[in-house]
Amino acid sequence: MNPKLFKTMMITLVIITVAGIGSIAYIMFNSDKATGELSIEDMVEYSYTTEEMNTDLKDGSFVQIQFQLITDSKKAREEVINRQFQLKNIFIKESVNLTERDFQEGLAELETKLKNQMNELMDDGTIIDVYIISKIIQ
To answer: For the chain, what is the domain count?
Structure first.
């Protein structure tokens, strides 16, 4: 066998082996990001808690509510902080047609609407989930 050909083949095999090991290590150490799921620590780090919001409802009731928004990155969290006035606006527009009963039964729908409408506005990252963490109806 030609020594030059043997040397080229060995170098190629070493490069392929190192690249394979590197790929496996990357996948193993970044498994949360590879599956698209955030760890609980990341969820806490990338979350934003709104201040309490008050609004009246269609049936004359009042609601006081607070949300926890989970984003996918620090940049997205910062953008949510800057867009909190838009979140309040979206919430008020959504709640104007809701009744006390809607707040007793349809909270998941409200969370989904807020998440989807805010994601339409977002430039850096996305909101993964919206949680209602406090709610008082009068």
So the answer is: 2
Are residues 133 and 75 located together in one domain of the fold? Answer: yes
Token pair, residue 24, equals 């496996």
Q: What single-letter DSSP state applies at residue 84?
A: H
Distances (CA, A) of 89 to 28, 32, 53, 83, 94: 42, 34, 10, 10, 9
Same domain? For 28 and 60 the reply is: no
Per the structure, the complete domain to which residue 64 belongs is given by: 40-137
Residue spans of the chain under pLDDT 50: 34
pLDDT, tens digit (0-9, with 9 covering 90-100), for 28-45:
776 555 456 778 888 889
Regarding whether 12 and 80 lie in a shared domain, the answer is: no
The Cα 38–Cα 50 span in angstroms is 21
